[in-house]
Design goal:
With 643 residues, this protein is an alpha/beta fold. The chain folds into 5 domains: 132 residues, Quinolinate phosphoribosyl transferase, N-terminal domain (Aldehyde Oxidoreductase, domain 3); 101 residues, Alpha-Beta Barrel (TIM Barrel); 111 residues, Rossmann fold, CATH 3.40.50.10800; 121 residues, Rossmann fold; 86 residues, NadA-like (Rossmann fold, 3-Layer(aba) Sandwich), CATH 3.40.50.10800. 44% of the residues lie in helices and 16% in strands. The strands form 6 sheets. The chain has a 6-stranded parallel β-sheet with strand order 6-11-10-9-8-7. A 5-stranded parallel β-sheet has the order 18-17-19-21-20, with helices on both faces. Strand 22, helix 24 and strand 23 form a beta-alpha-beta unit. It is flat. The protein binds 1,3-dihydroxyacetonephosphate (13P) and iron/sulfur cluster. The site of 1,3-dihydroxyacetonephosphate has 9 residues, from loops. 1,3-dihydroxyacetonephosphate binds next to loops.
Length: 643
Amino acid sequence: METHTPSLETLLAAAEPLIKLAIEEDIGPGDATSLSTLPPDVELAGRIVAKEPGVIAGLPVAEAVFCHVDPDITFTPHVEDGQEVVSGELIAEVVGPGRSLLAAERTVLNFLQRMSGIATQTRTMVDAVATTDARILDTRKTIPGYRVLDKYAVRMGGGTNHRMSLNDMLLVKDNHIDGAGGIAQAVRGARERYPDLPIEVEVRNLRELRQALDLTPPLDRILLDNMSLDQMKEAVVETGGRVPLEASGNVTPDRVAEIAATGVAYISAGSLTHSVTALDLSMKIGPRQAGRTGPPTPEELAADIRAVKQRLGDRLVILGHHYQRDEIIELADYRGDSLQLARQASQTDAETIVFCGVHFMAEVAAILAQPGQHVLIPDLTAGCYLADTASPKGVHAAWDALDAALGNADEQVTPITYVNSSAALKAFCGRHGGIVCTSSNAERVVRWALSQRPRVFFFPDQHLGRNTALSLGIPASDMMVWNRFTPTAPEVIQSQRVILWPGACMVHQRFRPEHVETVRQRNPAMRVIVHPECKAEVVALADESGSTSTIIHTIESAEPGSQWAVGTESRLVYRLQQEHPEQKIIPLADVPPFCNTMGQITLQNLAEVIAALDRGELMNEVTVDAENSHWARVALNRMLELP
Ligand code: 13P
Ligand code: SF4
């Protein structure tokens, strides 16, 4: 019921008349200022830059505007639609006749800022419900004429399109029901006239819900209009999965997570397109051959970093995780997955390790560093959404409950923390006979943990924990997800072997079973490989699953000409595409997800840290206090020493 997604061709066809209208409105017979101030033959270069973090949407429309104004303008995007950007990030470069660039600037930004605003707002809601199965839908509350553009932007934000217009789906609302004399009459009439269209019915209360549920054949979807959270919960229980439910009315970013927690399948939000806050973008124009008077170009920043690296030689090592931007990976001495980089960090003799990854990875490097070594990160706020789902307080409370239910948790349960966690949680594992794991060694670690004690408590990623236990032959019935809010009965805890923390990675949670099914329908020869942070349903449908380095190795060692749909962070997928032209590689999802915190590391902030180091300053040093460092090292070493 949500397959009306505008394709690129549909987007450009819908944008064409709007672009013409906008150019006529803004430029008309000519941009008087540019025509009178710039010589006719001056060539300029422009840089479109984000002035705040957000999600970009509308690059093909921006390119079309430039092309309409002057086909001699060359447009080079530096990011993809759907990609999250940080403040200051370069989005696209344009070069061409100066008068044309300046004339097109406002119209381009008007389209791009509005569409990116919609994508950003959508992503906020999508991220807020990332640990549930709920999908965020748009509505028909779009600016007249802009429906296709608005809905495309929602898709780029990770949302799902509701119907495009009144004629591709039946939505029987209160007015139709009242006018027809009741739900049954309205639905009968609708089905007789349009037997092939999907049908959704809006209900205002539980009485109407029961009437809608009694209809045969079942409806395609039921819309719960403006219900309270308690009513929604009751509706979910009453429906028992027979018909997908959609919640609508007063959906705000603050409320959306609790709405999703009621168990509804869809949440529609008119605000995504009717109350748009444009994303702040700017276009800086300068001479075509930019000198070093303005802000440094990416090439200049990279050259500066290389020069310092050369000066410092073996005293500096730069580590880059596979999800880093290409320009960072090009400067890294080593690239790898989290396990490889942890090992690298423990083996280097460099005085300074600059860690291009997220904060927990730099913490691991700091814990494993030798005395006197320093670990720096280009952006101290580059965290990990998954790691942040488990706080020491929450894990301690769960441990106390396990202790109460099992007698002595230290004899009954081995705690395992995925490396994507704070140093404090690694230290917790160290103190309680537990261990760290990464996605490369999770099976070995869980096997070891179960050889120590009868149960494991796995945090923070429930999906990696579940996928690993399933692959070891532990049935789903022997696993429970820890509920932070409702106490679990001791008998239930006693009957489980695997207790999973309810955390998830918002990047990998975006992959859904239908992505695998669609890829296979389109091309049965395509093999699907996913990261084990994806949901178990996705991993079960995939041909293979493994850590980032397993994914790379599998594709590198496959027969040339093999075809792969890859379900992991998109920078890695696109890099694989570039580095392995002998294989056909595509992203698994239609809107490939990026890890925005990995993307917080940029050439600019890396250059700042390296320049400071060149001056003898330690900028953005990552440290862990001695107590936590000691116990975290115990847990990490248990992992690193496993055969
Ligand atoms: P790897 O251990 O495969 O590098 O994964 C780390 C990560 O953060 C995945 O999202
Ligand atoms: Fe964390 Fe997910 Fe990003 Fe990996 S991809 S660093 S788990 S948020």
